[in-house]
Amino acid sequence: MLEAHDLACLKGDRLLFRGLALRLQAGGLLRVAGPNGVGKTSLLRLVTGLALPEAGEVRWRSVGIRSDREALHRELLYLGHAPALNDLLTPLENLRFACAAAGDDVDAQSCVTALARIGLENQLDLPARVLSQGQRRRVGLARLFLSTRRPLWVLDEPFTALDVAAVAELAATLSDHCDAGGMVMLTTHQDAPFTRVPDVLDVGAYAC
Amino acid sequence: MLSAFFAVLRRDLLLAWRGRADVLVTLAFFVIVVCLFPFGVGAEANLLRTIAPGVLWVAALLASLLSLHRLFAQDHADGTLEQLLLSSEPAVLWVTAKVLAFWLTTGLPVVVVAPVLGMLLDLEQGAYPVLVISLVLGTPILALLGAVGAALTLGLRGGGMLLALLVLPLFVPVLIFGAGAVEAELSGTGATAHLLLLGGGLAGALALAPWACMAALRVSTE
Question: Which of B13, B72, B83, B93 to mutate to test the interface with A (most CBs of A within 10 A)?
């Protein structure tokens, strides 16, 4: 499904990694590992098409994403390091906007349900600026419940700022998605309680 | 197909409403700049009447430049821009929605207030319709061209200053035909040619600027 070969990433004038290859099949859970600054986030951005590789190619369903970006974006959910929240909007408004902007037709009730499920039922009407870091992260993660029809989830440090219970719940959600035939690619420094053992891609092994 | 377009439009208008102060600042700037001229050149009615079209147009142009750097900055900082670029809907559509919302909140108020300031400068009666039409046609061009500049300078240090240097030369033709339309009306030659040129410019900018803007945003977020 998702493949990349011979990827090289240039940041500024420094080559972060080269010769990196990866393959993610339906039901796969891939954890991108490596020390800080090795290029984990850069790799995720290459895979999503937000950045272009210096060399090599990323392919989605055997088609290069450079030639058909939309095909990937229809089936991709990317949650980056920044939670994409506007401080002046409430969590509900933020979530509804995120879904509509991505092209998903989601009604308000599903958004409320998703936010309640992630533990924000009492913060629905508060502006996002008064939320804590963990709560902000949760608003972004609520999209996971609304994006089950998108098979590929690419998550950059999804466990950051979450409490223990939320980490366990998120790990279960990700495992469920994989069991249903989805794919998850994520970076994390935490040992999350996944029900299955994730494949590990060590970016450090390809560092220059 | 249009869900991203309307989502962005609704959200940006809502944000403008919640951050009303920013919108008022642009408008206040426009009013103050125009009001400075009688102090600077003297309150002689004939002189003010002659320079009124140019003054109103230059002030409108500077006011549209004032908040331009904010067009994508917040979305860039909080990661919304990345999400929009990953949308499965065409990027030109939501870029157009952003520029439209920007014009509605910064350009349209200027168009509405301009005739009032025209009275302050003793602009002749017959020139008001042409002044409003030229601003209605011209300020969206400024917003569209400015959006390309804002996208190109996104995330750069000193981007605001660079943005002004980048887009001000591009604003010159709009200024010439916009202020020219009002002057032509006053001199009796008729403003039709100027307004048609502005309309053509708007059609061209509407067709091309969103594409340029999208490409610039892709480069800036990389």
Answer: B83
Cβ neighbourhood burial of A16 (10 Å; 0-12, 13-18, 19+):
buried
Query: At A68, is the pLDDT very low, low, confident or very high (cuts 50, 70, 90)?
Result: confident
Sheet holding A14-24, edge to edge: A14-24, A2-11, A55-60, A63-64
pLDDT tens digits, one per residue of B4-42: 899 999 999 999 999 899 889 999 999 999 999 999 988
Q: Which of A9, A69, A88, A90 to mutate to test binding with chain B, by most B CBs within 10 Å of its CB?
A: A88
Residue among B202, B218, B198, B203 nearest B92 (CA)? B218
CA A171 – CA A160 distance, rounded (Å): 13
The Cβ of residue A53 has, within 10 Å, a number of other Cβ atoms equal to: 21
Yes or no: say if A79 and A155 are a contact pair by the CB < 8 Å rule. Answer: yes
Contact A22, A3 (CB under 8 A): yes
- Render B10-27 in DSSP notation, one character per residue: HHHHHHHHHTHHHHHHHH
Count CA atoms within 13 Å of residue A197 on its CB side: 1
- Whether A131 and A139 have beta carbons less than 8 Å apart is answered as yes
Cβ-nearest to A101 among B8, B18, B19? B8
CA distance A101 to chain B (A): 4
Q: How many domains does chain B have?
A: 1
Q: Which residue of A has its CA nearest to B221?
A: A50
Return the number of other C-beta atoms located less than 10 Å from residue B1's C-beta. 8
Q: Are residues B11 and A70, on separate chains, in Cβ contact within 8 Å? A: no
Q: Give mean pLDDT, residues A95-100.
A: 91
CA dihedral of A161, A162, A164, A168, whole degrees rounded to 10: -140
Q: Token pair 């000193």 is at which residue?
A: B158
Question: Which chain B residues have a beta carbon less than 8 Å from that of A82?
Answer: 77-79, 82
Q: Could you tell me the residue range of the domain that residue B32 belongs to?
A: 3-221
Give the helix/strand (H/E) hosting A20.
strand A14-24
Q: Closest partner residue to A105 among B3, B83, B94, by Cβ?
A: B3
Contact flag A73-B221 (C-beta cutoff 8 Å): no
Does the beta-carbon distance from B222 to A88 stay under 8 Å?
no
Instruction: Dump pLDDT digits (tens) for B82-111.
Output: 999 998 888 999 999 999 999 999 999 999
If one compares A66 and B105, the residue with the highest pLDDT of the two is B105
